[in-house]
Amino acid sequence: MNDPVVERYVQICRSLKKRFLRKPNITEARDNFYSFGKQLVATGNKEYAVSCYISASQCEQELGNTVGETNALTRAASLFLQLEKDKQLLCISSNEHYLVAGIDCYNNAINKLISSHKQDLALKLCVELGCLLIDMGHIPDAEAHLTKAASLINPGNISFQIVVLKKLSCCKSYCKNYMGALDTLDRLVYLINLATSTLEEKITSHLHETLQYCELTTLLLLLIVNTPLLHLSQQHKDLIKKYSSFPVDAITSEPDIDRFVLLTEITMAAKHKDYKQLTTLHDKLYSTLDSQQNELFKELIASIEDINLVLL
Question: 3-state DSSP helix/strand/coil percent for the chain, to nearest 5?
């Protein structure tokens, strides 16, 4: 064995394995695993570092330290996912061994926190994992963990509701589960309105922006699914009707007339199957939309283009 780092790893693991049998040395063993794991990460030996953090988590478990155990598991999970990302960046074919191992470590940590009644910490890990999986392009897995996160949130925690439900609707959109995305956005709007109506929350600029985000995203989803008004919920009917015409009194009644005009133009262009106008509007709005809204806008334009090709 020529690699001095690997030699040291094996040497420490052997010595710790012998001393691990004596309980008073568990704390020392844990500290050594953390210390060596950190050194291995610094030298680029992530695979060996993972073993150190998993061993550290076992020490924490033996010591009855649930938070320490889950922290060590999360470090190991993060390294597993980094290894998977490294393969993606190098365009190396992957059997997703690192991905599966990383998700397993996260799930182990999440379940231990839930069983220890530490819901807030479990929620944060669910969101953290969901966001990492979105970045890596594993949308169905991300959706599953964000759904779990949504089930753990205190209904009164509007800040977390916004983060989780927006990302969850995004996952559903990418998977073309448009009705699921609509349901998620409806839930978010309901929770914000409920909180503000009971005076638990004030309509801050952030909440106002979130409601506007939900309205535009919902409108795009409704235009894509193109369900007849008769079969829509009253809330969705009202939204489509609101932006299906441009009444004269809108100039005085709408607080943001420019936005009202833009949303009306989008709705009318979609109704009239005006591919050119929708493309122009998308170019105009592109920089102001997030990734989900831009993807939905592209999907709307593509659906109109397909219809026009059929009619030729």
Answer: 80, 0, 20
Q: In the numeric block, which tokens belong to residue 311?
A: 């009619």
| Extended beta strands in 58-167, E state | none
Dihedral sign (CA 53, 58, 63, 65): positive
pLDDT digits (tens, 9 = 90+) for 53-88: 999 999 899 889 999 999 999 999 999 999 998 887
Q: What is the pTM of this model?
A: 0.83
Please, how many CA atoms are within 13 Å of residue 25, restricted to the half-sphere of its CB?
11
Residue 117 φ then ψ, to 5°: 65, 35
DSSP 28-59: HHHHHHHHHHHHHHHTT-HHHHHHHHHHHHHH
How far apart, in whole angstroms, are the C-alpha atoms of residue 139 and residue 170?
9
Residue 206 to residue 228: CA distance in whole angstroms: 33
